[in-house]
Amino acid sequence: MAKFMDVHTGMKGITQEQLAAAHKADLAIEKEEGVHFERAWADPKSGTVYCLSEGPSADAVQRIHSRTGHPADEIHPVPVSVS
Q: What is the distance, to the nearest Å, from the Cα of residue 23 to the centroid of all Cα atoms in its chain?
Protein backbone atom coordinates (compact mmCIF):
# COMPACT_ATOMS: atom_id res chain seq x y z
CA MET A 1 0.00 0.00 0.00
CA ALA A 2 1.07 3.56 -0.65
CA LYS A 3 1.66 6.23 1.99
CA PHE A 4 0.13 9.70 1.78
CA MET A 5 0.56 12.99 3.62
CA ASP A 6 -2.44 15.21 3.41
CA VAL A 7 -2.81 18.85 4.34
CA HIS A 8 -5.90 20.59 5.69
CA THR A 9 -6.02 24.38 5.99
CA GLY A 10 -8.45 26.79 7.59
CA MET A 11 -8.54 25.03 10.95
CA LYS A 12 -7.25 27.94 13.05
CA GLY A 13 -7.63 27.37 16.76
CA ILE A 14 -8.06 23.60 16.49
CA THR A 15 -7.59 21.98 19.87
CA GLN A 16 -6.00 18.65 20.70
CA GLU A 17 -9.46 17.33 21.54
CA GLN A 18 -10.88 18.45 18.18
CA LEU A 19 -7.94 16.90 16.34
CA ALA A 20 -8.43 13.64 18.24
CA ALA A 21 -12.16 13.65 17.44
CA ALA A 22 -11.51 14.20 13.71
CA HIS A 23 -8.89 11.45 13.69
CA LYS A 24 -11.24 9.10 15.53
CA ALA A 25 -13.99 9.79 12.98
CA ASP A 26 -11.60 8.82 10.17
CA LEU A 27 -10.52 5.67 12.01
CA ALA A 28 -14.14 4.62 12.49
CA ILE A 29 -14.75 4.22 8.73
CA GLU A 30 -11.25 3.91 7.22
CA LYS A 31 -11.58 0.19 6.50
CA GLU A 32 -14.46 0.87 4.10
CA GLU A 33 -11.90 2.32 1.67
CA GLY A 34 -8.94 0.15 2.67
CA VAL A 35 -7.20 3.14 4.27
CA HIS A 36 -5.38 3.42 7.60
CA PHE A 37 -4.76 6.82 9.17
CA GLU A 38 -1.53 6.48 11.12
CA ARG A 39 -1.09 9.86 12.72
CA ALA A 40 -2.24 13.49 12.67
CA TRP A 41 -0.55 16.76 13.63
CA ALA A 42 -1.91 20.29 13.91
CA ASP A 43 -0.69 23.85 14.17
CA PRO A 44 -3.57 25.76 15.77
CA LYS A 45 -1.92 29.10 15.07
CA SER A 46 -1.77 28.65 11.29
CA GLY A 47 -4.79 26.35 11.12
CA THR A 48 -2.86 23.66 9.27
CA VAL A 49 -3.43 19.97 9.95
CA TYR A 50 -1.33 17.12 8.54
CA CYS A 51 -2.35 13.47 8.37
CA LEU A 52 -0.20 10.47 7.49
CA SER A 53 -2.07 7.54 6.03
CA GLU A 54 -1.64 4.35 4.09
CA GLY A 55 -4.06 3.23 1.43
CA PRO A 56 -4.75 2.20 -2.11
CA SER A 57 -4.98 5.75 -3.52
CA ALA A 58 -5.19 9.45 -2.72
CA ASP A 59 -8.83 9.31 -3.83
CA ALA A 60 -9.60 6.69 -1.18
CA VAL A 61 -7.99 8.89 1.48
CA GLN A 62 -10.00 11.89 0.29
CA ARG A 63 -13.28 9.95 0.30
CA ILE A 64 -12.83 9.12 4.00
CA HIS A 65 -11.89 12.69 4.91
CA SER A 66 -14.83 14.05 2.91
CA ARG A 67 -17.30 11.68 4.53
CA THR A 68 -16.14 12.72 8.01
CA GLY A 69 -16.49 16.42 7.19
CA HIS A 70 -12.90 17.55 6.73
CA PRO A 71 -11.75 17.07 3.13
CA ALA A 72 -8.04 17.57 2.52
CA ASP A 73 -6.83 20.58 0.56
CA GLU A 74 -3.81 18.64 -0.68
CA ILE A 75 -2.81 14.96 -0.69
CA HIS A 76 0.78 14.05 -1.47
CA PRO A 77 2.13 10.57 -2.12
CA VAL A 78 5.13 9.72 0.06
CA PRO A 79 7.00 7.00 -1.86
CA VAL A 80 10.34 7.42 -0.06
CA SER A 81 10.98 7.71 3.69
CA VAL A 82 13.56 7.02 6.40
CA SER A 83 13.24 6.43 10.11
A: 7
